[in-house]
Please model this.
Amino acid sequence: MARLFFVGIKHSGKTTQAKLVSRLTSIAFMDADDLIAQTLGGMSVREAYRKEGQEAFMKREKEAVKAFIEENGSFILSLGGGAADNTELMDLMKREGSIIYLKRNESDMLPVILRHGIPAFLDENDLEGSFHRVYERRDRIYTEYADLVIDLGSYGDKEAAAEMTAAQLREKGYV
Model:
């Protein structure tokens, strides 16, 4: 039974890669943001985070993932970029499956993130510095928890990256 949790920095390609790898391996795909959204009564995930605060959101995230795990066998689940900050969630995933860290170059990530607006976890007066600190902390946590680290580099060709990811997962016995 394959229970794969795709983690990584915000906008690193977790959901895109999870969908593509799901097609290549015939393992069901789900996005944790969609699981959380089902509990929000029409509010967006971003709105919930800002309205409820980080601690309440992390609890909601862990409970949604826990319920999904209890109801499913094999799956690929993509997580939000802030999962690294949720120790209870990270511990749950470590116990229940394999954590796959999709790593991207730090220098490529900030422009991608900013295309979607300034997220709540960045200091708008020090975007580069605050991102660097967040990236370093989350990279350390994801690396520590990961069963497998897949370096996507600059992540140019998404299909080729998915084929490489699926090949590494097969080679290491995860699928």
In short: Residues 3-171 form a domain with the Rossmann fold fold (CATH 3.40.50.300). The first strand starts at residue 3 and ends at 7.
